[in-house]
Amino acid sequence: MSSRLRGFVSAVGRALTGALLATGGVLLAVTAVQAQAPRTIALGHARVSAHAIPVNRGSLALWQTLKKLHTRASLIMIDAHPDDEDGPMMTYESRGKGARVALLTLNRGEGGANVMSSNFWDQLGLVRTEELLHADRYYGIAPQYFSRVVDFGFSKSRRGSLEKWGKQRVLADVVRVIRMDRPLVLTSVFVGWHSDGHGNHQVSGEMTQLAYKDAGNPKMFPRQIARGLRPWTPLKDFARVPFGLMAGELNPKGMWDYASQRYYPAGVFDYITGKFQPGAVSVSVRLPVGQFAPLLGLNYSQISRLGLSFQKSQNGGIGLPEAGRQTSEYHLFASRVPVPAVENSLFQGIDTSLPGIADLAPGPAAAFLRPALETINADVDTAMRQFDPVHPERIAPVLADGYRRMNALVNRVQASAIAPLAKYNVLYELHIKQAQFNTALVQALELNLQATVTTPKPPSGLFAMFFGTPATFTTAIRGQHFWVNVHLVAQGRTPVRLTGVDLRGINGQSWDAMAHGPVAGTLAGNRPDNLRFSATVPENAPYTRPYFSRPNIEQAYYNIRNRKYIDRPLAPYPLKAWAHFRYHGVNLTMGEVVQSVSRITGPGLVLNPLVVAPAISVTIRPIAGIVPLGARSFRLTATVHSNVKGPARGAVRLELPAGWRAEPAVAHFAAAHDGQDQSVDFQVFPANLRVRPYRIQAVADYDGQHFGLGYVTVGYPGLRPYNYYRQAIYRTSGVNVKVAPGLKVAYLMGSGDEVPQSLVNLGIHVHFLNAQDLASGNLDKYNVILLGVRTYAVRTSLRTYNSRLLHYVHQGGVVIVQYNTPEYDHDYGPYPYRMGKDPQEVTHEDSRMVILHPHNPVFTWPNQITLKDFQGWIEERGSKFLRSWSPKYEALLSTHDPGQPPQRGGFMYARYGKGVYIYCAYAFYRQLPDGVPGAYRLFANMLSLAKNPAVFPAAAASGGK
C-alpha cells in the first residue's frame, strides 16, 4: 500500500464507519449485468437507485473495482430464502478478494412472517425481494437470481418440499443459472440434510450438489442449450459446515433437526457420490470474515450485517456485531482440481489471475491469448501501484490503455479459430473485464449522472439552491407527456468529452425522447451540465409489475409471464438515461434508471424509480370472504386509484353471478388529481345463495377504456416500494354460519393481518385498541378482545399492561390470543404454560383433526362444529403450539404432521374468574382472508362466547355482557 493510500485510510476510515451506518445506496456496476439466455454483458450498468451506498463511492469503489479487474475468481452461493445467505463470506470474497460473487435464492420467502407491514403471501415475496436487493449492495454481489418456486410455508422435510415444487423444476432452474453465470466455484449455506432443518433449506443444499454434476452435461435440460446457453462445469463445490457437526461439537444423541423435532445420526449425505458421510463434518477452509478492512472502516462481517439489517420483515431489524475475529467454515464436497485436505481459500488450485482466463481455451489456436492477457494484467498492476485516492484520475490513462488492449483482444478472439465452446467461455470472461474497465474509468474520472423526472419549467432561484429538485409524479401512464432532466458532472480534474445522451425504454422501446439543448461537449472542472428531454410514454408500454404470478397460493411455483426476465429479481424499470463519453481513444458508458421525486416529512427528498401503471387501478380488499346463507345482502367496496394527471371521472360496475344484483348498478367516481383514491360502495343482493363458491369482478370505465386490473404498493417506509397486481376479483362462498348479534369486538393489531376486514363478512366491525386504551381505557364495554398475530412480539404496551387484560377476563370478558411467537412465552395467560424457544408447527393444511372436547361451547353454539369444518384449509394448520400447560387450560383440538407426535397445544381454553381466555395457534389469519368456510364458522363461535348461554347464562338472557 502506498503512503498516500495509507494516509487516505487514516483520514477516512473512522468517518466511513459512521457513514455506512447512516446511509443507503446502490452497488456500483463492477460486474456485468444479466440478461436472458444466452447471457449478454453490457459495458454500462443503469443504476437502479439514485445514490450509491458509501462503501461504493469515490476512491473506495475504484479500489474495489481494480481488485476485481485483477482476478477472474467467481462463485455463486445458493440458498433457500432471503436472509439465509452467508453475507460475511460473500462480502469477504467480493470486497476483500475481488471475486465476482452471485447469489441464487430459490424462493422469495412468501410464506414467512411480516412484522413490518400487512403484506403476506406474494406481496410479502416482493417485500423480501426488495429487502434482499438492498442487502446485496452491502455484500457486493451482482447479479441476484431467483428460481420459480415459492415459499409455501414451513416445510419439515426435503421430500415434502420437492413434492410441492417438483425436483426437475428446481434442478432445471439451478442448472440454468449456473450456465448463465458460469462460476468457478459453487457454494451453499446448507448441506442438504437433516442438520439444515427447514425442508426448503435441505433442497437448496441438495440442488447445489446435483447441479455441480449436471450443469456441464449437455444432455441435461437440452432445451436450455437449444435456447442458446452452453454447458458449464464448475471446478469446486463447498457447503457451509453445519453448526454442531464440527469435530469436538457432536452431541451423543446425534444431530438435532429442528423442523421434524428429532435426532438423526450425525453426518451429511453426499449427493455427488451418493454416499452418507457419518460423523463430524471436516472443515476444508476457514475464511477470515472478521478481518478488518481499513479502507471500508469495518470488518467484512460488519459490512454484511449492515446489509442484513435491511431485511426487517422477519425480525424487525438487527444490530451491528462487535469487531473482532470471526470465521466462516466450509466443507469441500467435490473438486475437479487437486487440493490439500485443508485449503487456504475457496479457489486454491485454480488459476484465478487475469491471465488465467487463457486456461479456458487450450491449444495452438489460442496461443496468443495468455501473452495478451499478461500485457493487460500489467496495465492493471500499474494502475493498482499508482492508485492515489486523492487523485484517482491519475490512473485513468493506464486504465484506458488496458481497456483499449482488452477491446482489441475481444476482436481477435472473435475472429480466431478457437473451438466454439472455448471461444464462448473466453469471450464471456473478456466481456466481463470490458465492463469492469468501463466502470473503473467512470470511477477514476469521477463522472456523475442523475436522471430525474422534472417540471416543464426548470426550477431556479433560492428554491432550487436550497431544496433541489421539486417533487414530481411517481407513476406514469400510457400516452403521458413529461420532462426528464439528466444531470451530468465530471467531478475530477480531467476533461472528458461527452459524445451523447439518450433515454431508452425497455428492450429499446421508443419513448419519443427529444433533447432540448446541445448533447455533445466537454465536461470538466466539476461544472454541472443539465440536459432536458421531453418524452412520451408509449401506448403499449408494459406496466411495471412482476414478470411472475400464480393463480392461487396453493400452487407452489410461479408461472412466468415473460421468459426474457426469468431468474431476475424483477422486470426492469421502464426508462433509463445513458451518457456516452470518449476518453483516450476508448468509449465509456454510464446510466441510471430515471427517478421520480417525492418529498416526505422526515426522510425529506426521496428518489425512487419511475414506474408505469394503468391510468385507473381498481382493487377489492380483502380478496375473498363468505356470505352467510341467511344474509339478504352484503356490502362490497371497490377502491379506485387514479394515476391520471388531472381530474378523472368514470364509473365502476360489478360483474355478478347470474341472478345477483347490486345497488347501485353503476357507481360513479371523480378523482381531482393524480394519486387520489376513492372508495365505491355496493350493496350486493345474492339470489339462490347456496353452499358453493362465487366470483365477482369489479370493472372501472374511464375515457372509453375498461380497467379490471389493480395494484397495491407493498413495503414500508425506508424500503423501495413495488406494485403488486391482481385482477379486481372477489371470491366468496355461501356458508351456513351464524354469529351472536350485537357483539362489540375490540382488536389489538400485532405485526399486521387482515382478520378485522374479514370479520365484516360476519357483520362485525371491530374497534382498534391503542396503547392508551390498554393503559387506562374502559375495556369492559367490549364483549370480546382479539389480539392480532405476533402482538407480544411487537407491542411493548401489551406486555406492560397485560394484567389489565387478565382483569378484564376475570370480570367476565373474553380474550382471544391468536398465533404468537416465543415472545408470548412468559405466562401472559391466566395460568402457567410453556411454549419453548423452538415451538411446534403443523404444516400440512389437511392434517387429520381430532376434536378432543366436542361438547365445549366453542364447538356447539351458534354453529355445530364438525371435522368437515377443517377441510379446505390453506398453507398450514398452525404455528407455535404450546408444549405444556396448567390443567386449568382445556386443550380442545389435536392434530399433527406425519411422523410428529399429536399436538394438543394449539387451541387452549380456560375459564378465569367470570370470563374466558383462549390461546389459538391455528392459522385463522391465513384462512379468513382467503374465505375458508369452516374457519369462519369456528371463529364465529369463539366471538360468540360472550353471549353463549352455556358460558354466560345471565349475559345471554339480558342480551349483553
Radius of gyration (Å):
30 Å
Strand order of the largest sheet: 4-3-2-5-6-14-11
Give the beta-strand count: 53
Largest sheet: 7 strands, mixed
Low-confidence stretches: 1-38
**Distance between the ends:** 78 Å
- Shape annotation: globular
Helix fraction, binned, reads 10-25%
- Give the helix/strand class: alpha+beta
Count helical runs. Answer: 22
Quote the average pLDDT: 92
Helices and strands in order:
Layout: H1 3-22, E1 46-47, H2 58-69, E2 74-79, H3 87-96, E3 100-105, H4 121-139, E4 144-146, H5 158-165, H6 167-181, E5 185-188, H7 199-214, H8 222-226, E6 236-240, E7 255-257, E8 262-264, E9 267-270, E10 275-278, E11 285-287, E12 292-293, E13 298-299, H9 300-308, E14 328-335, H10 369-386, H11 396-415, H12 420-444, E15 447-454, H13 461-467, E16 475-476, E17 481-490, E18 496-505, E19 514-516, E20 521-523, E21 529-536, E22 548-549, E23 559-560, E24 575-583, E25 586-593, E26 595-600, E27 604-609, E28 611-612, E29 616-620, E30 627-628, E31 634-642, E32 648-655, E33 661-663, E34 666-671, E35 677-685, E36 693-702, E37 705-707, E38 709-714, E39 722-727, E40 729-735, E41 745-748, H14 755-759, E42 767-768, H15 771-776, E43 784-787, H16 791-794, H17 796-800, H18 802-810, E44 814-817, E45 833-834, E46 840-842, E47 850-851, H19 857-860, E48 878-881, E49 884-885, E50 890-891, E51 893-894, E52 907-912, E53 915-920, H20 924-927, H21 933-943, H22 953-958
Parallel strand pairs: 1-25, 2-3, 2-5, 3-4, 5-6, 16-28, 30-40, 41-42, 41-43, 43-44, 44-53
Antiparallel strand pairs: 6-14, 7-8, 9-10, 11-14, 12-13, 15-17, 17-21, 18-20, 18-24, 19-21, 22-23, 24-25, 26-27, 29-31, 31-35, 32-34, 32-36, 33-35, 36-37, 36-40, 38-39, 45-49, 46-48, 47-51, 50-52, 52-53
